[in-house]
Amino acid sequence: MTITADLTPVDETTSPGATVELIDVVKDYSGHRALDGIGLAIAPGEFVALLGPSGCGKTTALRALAGLEQVNGGSILIDGEDVAELPTNKRDIGMVFQSYSLFPHMTALENVEFGLRMRRVPAAERRDRAAEMLEMVGLAKHGARFAHQLSGGQQQRVALARALVTRPRVLLLDEPLSALDAKVRVQLRDEIRRIQTDLGITTLFVTHDQEEALAVADRVAVMREGRIEQIGTPEELYARPQTPFVADFVGLSNRVPGELADGVVRAHGTEFALLGEQQPDGAVLAYVRPEDIVLMDEAAASGIGATVVTSSFLGSLRRTRVRLDDDTLLAVQHEVGMHPEPGSRVGVRFTGAPVAASPR
Amino acid sequence: MNANTRAAVRIGTEPGRVARGVILGVVGAIFLIPILAMVEFTFRAGLGGEYTLDHWAGLFAPESARTYRGLFTAIGNSFVLAAVTVAIVLVLLLPTMILVQLQFPRLKRVLEFICIIPITVPAIVLVVGLAPVYSVVVNLLGGAVWTLAFAYGITVLPYAYRAIQANLDAVDVVTLSEAARSLGANWLSVLWRVLLPNLRRGILAASFISVAVVLGEFTIASLLNRTNLQTALLQVSQSDPWVAVIFALLALLLAFVLLLSIGRLGATNRNRSAS
Fold first, then answer.
1. Where are the domains of chain A?
2. Residue B9 reports pLDDT greater than 90
């Protein structure tokens, strides 16, 4: 399945970024197909995240776009120009790597200047632009420091400034936050999005962290085994997953056994409309979100009987795991006011929101 | 506490201050006593036990220039050989290792195996193999002393390889070169502006070790009938043992300074990382 999105700019007035298109791109590694005819179109100024489990080909796709991997087939277009044969240094891209990639023998300022030096920008202009970019990432006072004198988060900020200072056509982010601790990760994630929005640069962001992808991207492409399984806005992916894999990978889903007939899944007396492509009738597993299940006191219960297994406080909400009488295990999300005790009897009810399903 | 735990504790315990002093003293004495004996020998007037500065002063006397001309020529030869050997290491081995690290990582083991072979081959065996090769080299390039550097290039391979590889392993050259490429650098700029500055310590260590090995080499030069510092020292020692020992001391001093420089480079790097 090759999915190609429309080229609709996010904001045409502030989007100097380039269009990016991957068309039927194939990459083989000695008998293993890492990219299997991938198709992806990114509008100018758009922020797209490639999301998927390890080994799904997301980093390979990004590296192919950067020119760090030679592809075996297909086209890679930046602003309509086929760059598949162009070496990395001629593609006019900016890239931030997963591992800290600052040049250790240069100061932060010299690191940021590097790309400009390669483009033979005069020294004075180089200094000014590099200093300006360091200020943008909040490190104006750290220009004289070497990489080993900066924290991980600061190093990635400098790497971001270094990637952006040349005003590249495309910004590529290869899991730039994965080496950072949780708090810094969230801060830098938001900062990346702010800077990207300010500059309007077309951005491709690779991550295996669904929360990260959903939080920052305009659209998210979920990859599996070298192909794009589904691409859409974070809301679309979450609310209307087209395949069981997406339903399972993006967010939390309960697998509820049911019967599919005429495009409707019936389970525990509830009818669910089927999302995605039509499937043959028969026994299926329906993927139901925890927030699409209502938890009730047993006394007031008119729903399905269940026993509480565990209940966890998650800040603004509570997640409770219950076991139905037919042994199906469900995770239910509810407001923090309810405190179900493990072992107590409760009732549950499905809201009947549309679901993805896979044959059982 | 079982036997295994006791053993682990015993192995893991650092020796005390006194034990460390004794170990350092014994090891130091093993190195220092022969050197002190050599120094003492250079001040001896003869076998009678009197001391003189004549042997040292004689080195710088105008009339000695002729006597020691051969020795000075040999020193010059050794420095030329050291320079050409270092050039071979830097021009052939270094780019090969960088290329393997960046583009052909699967060949790393093969390259390592090839580079450590010379350490397992005795110099005399090496010469037996090199003799017919050198008959061709002489026909092609003449019998100039610098041609011996081809053989020395082989003998220093294990040491130079280890020094450079240790540095390559400590630096993520793949990511650094990819970052530089993504910023618009061509391969020459990647090498010159990014990789070489970060491999400086390994390159200097490889160069210094190569110089030290070349300055101390005797067997190959002697068996291939070339004159270098060590063969000249042997020759001089038959007529003037004091001068031979003085030059041996100076060669030792030079090697010591080179190794100290390597140590200082390493220490500088460690301090910088720790700060």
1. 12-239, 252-359
2. no
> Could you tell me if B176 lies within 8 Å of chain A, comparing CB atoms?
yes
Q: How many domains does chain B have?
A: 2
A95 touches chain B (CB under 8 A): yes
Question: Is the Cβ pair A119, B184 closer than 8 Å?
Answer: yes
Out of B176, B182, B272, whose CB is closest to A93?
A: B182
The reply to whether B9 falls in a domain is no
pTM here is: 0.80
**B52 touches A: beta carbon within 8 Å:** no
Please check whether residue B273 touches A, CB under 8 A. Answer: yes
Residue B67 vs residues A129, A240, B61, B201, B218: alpha-carbon distances, Å: 66, 96, 10, 41, 22
A37-81 pLDDT, tens digit per residue, is 999 999 999 999 999 999 999 999 999 999 999 999 999 999 999
Q: What is the pLDDT of residues A266-296, one digit of tens each?
A: 998 899 999 888 888 999 999 999 999 999 8
- Specify the CATH superfamily of domain A252-359: Nucleic acid-binding proteins (2.40.50.140)
CATH topology of domain A12-239: Rossmann fold (3.40.50)
- CATH code of B115's domain: 1.10.3720.10
B197 near A CB under 8 A: yes
B contact test, residue of A62, A65, A78, A89 with most B CBs within 10 A: A89
Instruction: Chain A: give the shortest CA distance to residue B227, in Å.
Output: 42
The dihedral through the CA atoms of B156, B159, B162, B163 has a sign that is negative
Measured between alpha carbons, how far apart are the two ends of chain B, in Å? 40
Closest chain B residue to A161, measured at CA:
B183
Output the six-digit token pair for A6. Answer: 């429309």
Contact of A349 with A288, CB cutoff 8 Å = no
Range of the domain at B182: 68-274
- Compute φ and ψ for A326, nearest 5 degrees: -90, 15
